[in-house]
Amino acid sequence: MTVPQHHATDDLLLAYVTGSLPYPMEVAIAAHLTLCPTCRDVAEDFEAVGGEVFADLEQPGTPSADIDTGLQNVLSRLDEPAPDTTPPPIAADADWAQLTPAPVRALAGQTADLAWRPKLPGVAVVDLSSIEQHGAKARLVRTVAGGALPKHLHRGLELTLILAGGLTDQHGHFRRGDLLVIEQGISHRPVMDEDEDCLCLGVTDGPVILTGIIGRMRQVLSGY
Amino acid sequence: MLLKFGGPGAILNNAADQREALAGLLIAVAERQDRDAFAELYRHFAPKLKTLCTRMGVTAGAADEIVQEILLTVWRRAATFDSSRAAVSTWVYTIARNRVIDHKRKGQRAEIDLNDPALVTAEVPDHETRIDAERRAVRLRAAIADLPPDQAEVVRIAYFQAKTQGEIAEQQGLPLGTVKSRTRLALARLRAALAGGQEQP
To answer: Global pTM?
Structure first.
């Protein structure tokens, strides 16, 4: 298995660890972490920092009677059966489970049977808008091998996690597991690898604006 | 080896001894469902967890119940604690963080599943090359104490208030770039301490 070469920034990993990312971005980072042992190490280090900052917390004098009340309450519940937290069994779609990390399957479903919607020539998407939070939206984007997305501009942060195939833009060449982080105000025109269709999880927290002449015409026509 | 914490008879001034004792209590819970050990853990962590919950924005009315749920989860999941991967404080922190996020969102947190068929592992599992997590944590604690105050402050706010850097900048009346650079400097130092390398001057 190859290890990703393009990583989440420390800013994003810290925000993931502290729980300050909107849910759709959290999904993209958790999915990248599933595929990237390098970033998992960094996230574990950041969790260790959280553990120490937590261990150092000053404790305002909680009356010991209050602690005892809580303790007695919990002791009385220790024998309760634990709620069943095991996830539902994965449908018999082992290929899909190999392809998409669990945080993505939690959103898109346990099988590859998705409601793809044609968006542009050679491009189909599945909107995962049910989880929109703080303006952040997630979608799966499938682009035909050798195809390209029209040049577009981001009015917010865009995270693109490559799940299959690959793409190239001015930031480099991105393959499975790589995370492409595009800051606000940057435009790019990703071109897909020739070997197979490209499947990406794309998360944005602002509108996407097509900037080329053709792109602008298409945007008007398709509502992209 | 059960040692008392926090009470009038507490004699554990040595941080490393206290860490080992906490890990021992958690392992006693995991291996023998030891209720006395659990009670010790409860007394140690409940006040800290209550502070954590309220700083992370849980109302005082809801905090007591959430603290109890977190510690009930500690009891139920004790067997999943792996002392080579995480210090006890880190393990409890992640359980607490997830519970608070669930509470605030009324929805799930996106988490890595280490049993995921899609999981990609490093060729050499990194924890085999790492020293014991509690010893790393002792070094980390010292490095946190050595941070310049302005860097320590942005780190504390990031963890406790679960705020974005933009929100921290606004709250502190600082330019966003200043918050970002302070945070990066702090995290680089702390990661260097974890790696056992030289800290940046």
So the answer is: 0.87
